[in-house]
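User: I'm curious whether this sequence folds into something compact or stays loose and floppy. Could you predict its structure so I can see for myself?
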Amino acid sequence: MDWLFLVMAGFFEMIGVAMINKLHKDRNWKAFALLFTGFGLSFLFLALAMRTLPMGTAYAVWTGIGASGGAILGMLVYGEPRNVARIISIAIVLGSTVGLKLIG
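Assistant: Here's the prediction. I'll summarize afterward.
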């Protein structure tokens, strides 16, 4: 269950990051509320996951999901560049995240 909490934490981290971008563009209360909610839920689920998962592994997986998910969202939703180097870099982050899950 703690790994599910960790994945949920990463998902909400992605939402928070996406809302930072939206808040810069729109400057409205809805974007701010979604940003606050996304990061709040992210920290809540991270704390729940860390009840049994090692801190280093949990933090690395959480940031890996947030960083790669944010980059993928940027490409899909906000029209950010989709080049080979960027995609390979995302794959490396995700591969490292999976590696931490497998060994820890």
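Summary: Helices lie at 2-26, 29-49, 55-77, 84-103. The CA atoms of residues 60 and 97 lie 7 Å apart.
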